Amino acid sequence: PESPFVTSGIRVGTPAPTSRGFKEDEMREIAAMMCDVMDNLEDEAVIKAVREKVSALCSRFPVYSD
Predict the structure, then answer these.
(1) 33 in a domain, yes or no?
(2) pTM greater than 0.85
(3) Is 65 among the domain residues?
């Protein structure tokens, strides 16, 4: 890893996911989904599939519980 002053990757903040209850496994899922989209920027089928995975993940960890 480079210093924070060298653009060498993507930094992803964790406060929002952790406040929803995401743990290490969910963060790995998020990273995999990000890679899927970045590897397939023009593939609408991949983007749609990732969108559905994001919705499913978020529904497992609602912002507000009933």
Answers:
(1) yes
(2) no
(3) no
37 found inside a domain? yes
Per-residue pLDDT of the chain in tens (66 residues, 90 and over written 9): 778 788 878 888 999 999 999 999 999 999 999 999 999 999 999 999 999 999 999 999 998 876
- The Cα 46–Cα 10 span in angstroms is 20
Tell me, what's the pLDDT at 5? 87
Range of the domain at 21: 15-60
Within 8 A by CB and 6+ apart from 18, the residues are none
Q: What is the DSSP string of the chain?
A: ---TTS--S-----HHHHHTT--HHHHHHHHHHHHHHHHTTT-HHHHHHHHHHHHHHHHHS-SS--
d(CA 61, CA 17): 9
